[in-house]
Specification:
The complex is a heterodimer of chains A (502) and B (325). Chain A is 35% helix and 25% strand. Chain A has 502 residues and is an alpha/beta fold. Chain B contains 13 helices and four strands. Chain B has helices at residues 11-30, 37-62, 70-87, 92-116, 121-139, 149-156, 169-187, 189-199, 201-206, 211-237, 248-258, 270-290, 296-324, and strands spanning 144-145, 159-161, 165-167, 239-240. Classes of the chains: A alpha/beta (502), B mainly alpha (325). At the A-B interface, helix 2 and strand 8 of A face helix 7, helix 8, helix 9 and helix 13 of B.
Chain lengths: 502, 325
């Protein structure tokens, strides 16, 4: 592909938030007639970059040029007027209005202030058909169509407004395979029409399927801009994760991984949920730590939620201790001895205002029923015991948990579940956002729990961690379990290859 | 849905129409003298003010809000009109525009508070309700009778229509408001913006619609309608009184909902509100024709109807959700 004049150039963009340098010196170019994928893990700065581009945040430094002219959009609306439109994953349209209105509202054809419905419907129909090859009844309410169609309508609205630059922010996250195909064919068509498309997604396969150029960000910095055809998958993943391939085999081997884990605590057979995770098999042995690796959005959390019943599996079955069992709700899962520490410590786990003691006993109390209250004395005993065992600091059961550091909050959450003596402990990003010392402590704790016979499903974005403590690693990619690596075969390179796929 | 000739969003309106016809037919069979055009016209005459407030309320509910102040604003309008005309001796030509402006600005004020301070409409208009009702009694604790010739003329004039029947001037005003509101809701940008806000306010904002201005205008319009209904109510009662239109806000909301407008906003028709008002009126008429029943039976029947219509809406919308899944 020959170098053309870029349509949009962002140069040396800096943006800081209190305590975080979200973008530092990022350069970014968009070419007309190209689909450009913006890649990076969580916190890489993708969404900040998009928000700077669309005027949600002003840049601290740097310059944006559209067709050679410097622009400074102050709101998404201004950006739209300039020709930069964004379509988000959650469709920002009005489901109660007709498709035609959603495309044209605010710019309806009028005569003497009266909206000309016929002309409006006609225009909407023409727009959808000519630009998107979509033939639907535009007079029906938007809400009666699938999310995929709604997204196409959102794109049509963006095209009608301006359309030089179209930003698609994770548009495929809630679409099924066929719908993604439909979206891609629309994207290809728009590329032929000369639009510059910025595509953000977590799905590697999709990037290679549809994009022409890839820009990788990590920790707010530009790592590289490549033509898709020149960037092998493995290289992309290593750029995103930020580890060189030669750093391979340096991890210290934990104890030998020999046991055969014949006795399974939980086995999932063909368990899946439409639109969330494709059917997978996964067995977790007694005393085994199964790590789950994969990029953000690869379906790790979704898979864990199925095992816990937080989302209901619509296919497959579960086997516990050799017997078929149903897990339809967290309630049932807890009764069967499954515990789940969610990745959103703040919103789904810790109750800020309550004391450490109250947080620790919450799950046990719940499982006993609220009418058989634990005595205050028993509560204090339990809290003290776990504060000691997990080394929670400060060792005071009566202070509100919000005053603890992130790592200690995580330990409180862990204590809560350990108190119920689960057979299987699911940990989703247990070490996110906590310091190195606390991380090591939590890892040690997990290993010792496993030695005592507890099964652990350990999900983490940090590959090192997964490599270090797992006896077996299940790799997720694009919402599929793509590989399982055990024992001696576990190596950074194998896992990374599996994550990258292709 | 293409298999059905009826669109889903029209079902509540069709249900209201059918019910109206059914009740009218039943009344006609049961009571002599019921089956006449004048009975229908009387519905309009007796409920002209209700129709006007309900039209204003329809916009509020369509936008996902609620306006509890309407009954009190009516009372305040009657009180202020009566005091200014009878006690201060002002001419109606000054008083009527004044009270209309007052109602409108009160509505606009509430709308501005709702939008710019992000406070629930329920609370803001509840405050407005107490404020307006209280102000009535500041003017006078007793009812003030109006003897002004203009008001008396407006109250007593019968506008003849072919067939020997008649309507009142208030009916003409109410129907004009209705027609204007239908135009406003369906053929202007303001109207569509109201629907968009009711559908998803955040989306409406992102789509670049003037959400703030529209919300203020919605409540201003509702305030205007309440004041106009107050003027019409003054024609009807020929008095100003702090206890006029007590609880009318709830009758109004009931009429709007029975007319097929979703309380969550975004779905409904102004014409449906007309049907809702007529339904309330005809139930009242039936009960007065029955003679032995106390007028409280109206409330009971309205209560049951309201429940049925809300269930119908729930049924329709949940069926929609299943289809999407």
């Amino acid at each position: 592909m020959q170098e053309r004049e870029p349509l949009l150039v962002m140069s040396d963009i800096h943006k800081a938030f209190p305590g975080v340098q979200a973008l530092s010196g990022v350069h970014f170019r968009l070419f007309p007639g190209e689909i450009h994928a913006l890649m990076g893990e969580n916190g890489a700065g993708k969404s900040t970059l998009i928000k700077v581009l669309t005027g949600v945040y002003p840049a601290d430094r740097g310059e944006i040029r559209l067709e050679g002219r410097v622009i400074q959009p102050h709101s998404p609306l201004e950006a739209q007027m300039l020709g930069i439109s964004t379509v988000y994953q959650e469709v920002n349209l009005c489901p109660n209005l007709s498709v035609a209105e959603n495309i044209l509202i605010g710019r309806e054809p009028r005569r003497f202030g009266r909206i000309r419905w016929k002309a409006m419907n006609e225009e909407a129909r023409r727009l959808l058909e000519e630009r998107l090859h979509l033939r639907i009844d535009v007079t029906r309410p938007l809400g009666s169509y699938s999310v995929a169609i709604q997204q196409l309508v959102a794109i049509a609205r963006a095209l009608n407004i301006s359309a030089k630059v179209l930003i698609l922010d994770e548009p495929t996250s809630s679409l099924d395979r066929g719908e993604v195909e439909q979206l891609f064919s629309v994207m290809r068509k728009l590329r032929e029409d000369g639009l510059a498309i910025l595509f953000v997604t977590h799905f590697l396969d999709q990037v290679y399927e549809v994009s022409d150029r890839i820009t990788v960000l990590r920790n707010g910095r530009l790592i590289g801009e490549h033509l898709t055809e020149n960037l092998p998958r493995l290289e992309l993943v290593s750029q995103m994760i930020g580890k060189e391939l030669k750093e391979l085999e340096e991890l210290p081997k934990e104890e030998s991984r020999v046991a055969d884990w014949a006795e399974k605590t939980l086995e999932a057979v063909g368990v899946g949920r439409k639109g969330s995770v494709e059917p997978f098999d996964l067995g977790i042995g007694k005393g085994e730590i199964v790590g789950m690796a994969g990029l953000l959005g690869s379906g790790r959390t979704e898979a864990a939620r199925l095992l816990f019943g937080a989302d209901r599996a619509d296919q497959g079955r579960f086997v516990m201790s050799g017997e078929d069992t149903v897990i339809h709700s967290p309630r049932q899962a807890i009764d069967k001895g499954i515990a789940f520490c969610s990745e959103n410590r703040k919103t789904e786990g810790i109750i800020d205002e309550l004391s450490v003691r109250e947080n620790i006993i919450a799950a046990l109390q719940a499982s006993q029923g609220w009418f058989r209250a634990l005595s205050r004395k028993r509560q204090e005993e339990l809290a003290d015991e776990y504060i000691r065992a997990l080394n929670i600091y400060p060792p005071n059961p009566e202070i509100p948990v919000k005053n603890l550091s992130g790592g200690n909050q995580q330990k409180v959450l862990l204590a809560r579940w350990l108190l119920t003596h689960p057979k299987l402990l699911i940990l989703d990003e247990p070490t996110r956002g906590i310091d190195v010392g606390a991380k090591a402590e939590i890892q040690k704790l997990i290993l010792s729990l496993a030695r005592e016979g507890m099964s652990v499903l350990f999900i983490s974005s940090e590959l090192e961690e997964v490599l270090r403590i797992s006896h077996r690693i299940a790799v997720m990619r694009d919402r599929r379990k793509v590989s399982e690596i055990a024992g001696e075969d576990i190596s950074r390179e194998r896992v990374m290859k599996a994550i990258a796929g292709g | 849905m293409a298999r059905f000739a009826i669109k889903k969003q029209h079902v509540p309106i069709i249900a209201s129409t059918a019910l109206l016809i059914l009740i009218f037919a039943a009344g006609s069979l049961r009571y002599t003298g019921f089956f006449s055009l004048q009975v229908l016209l009387n519905l309009l005459i007796d409920n002209a003010f209700l129709l006007i407030v309900a039209v204003g309320m329809t916009f509020v509910i369509l936008s996902g809000g609620i306006d509890l102040s309407v009954g009190s604003v009516i009372a305040l309008t009657t009180m202020l009109s009566a005091a200014l005309i009878e006690q201060a001796g002002w001419p109606p030509a000054v008083v009527i525009p004044l009270v209309l402006a007052l109602g409108t600005s009160m509505g606009a004020g509430m709308g501005a508070i709702i939008h710019y301070y992000r406070i629930q409409p329920f609370i803001v208009t509840l405050a407005g309700m107490f404020l307006a009702r209280g102000l009535c009694f500041v003017i006078s604790i007793n009812a003030i009778t109006i003897k002004d010739p203009f008001y008396v003329t407006m109250a007593q004039t019968r506008v003849p229509i072919p067939g020997g029947n008649f309507i009142s001037i208030s009916v003409i005003i109410a129907l004009a408001v209705l027609a204007a509101a239908i135009w406003l809701a369906h053929f202007t940008r303001f109207g569509r913006c109201v629907y968009a806000i009711g559908g998803n306010e955040y989306s409406a904002l992102l789509m670049g619609l003037p959400v703030g201005r529209t919300k203020v205008l919605i409540y201003a319009f509702s305030g205007f309608c309440s004041a106009l209904a107050g003027v019409v109510f003054t024609f009807y009662m020929l008095s100003g009184y702090g206890l006029h239109a007590l609880g009318l806000e709830l009758d109004t909301i009931a009429a709007v909902v029975i007319g097929g407008t979703l309380l969550t906003g975004g779905v409904g028709y102004v014409f449906g509100t007309f049907l809702g008002v007529m339904l309330q009126g005809i139930i009242q008429t039936i009960i007065s024709f029955e003679g032995t029943l106390s007028s409280w039976w109206t409330k009971i029947v309205i209560g049951v109807l309201l429940l049925l219509f809300i269930l119908l809406q729930r049924l329709l919308s949940s069926r929609g959700e299943v289809r999407e899944a």
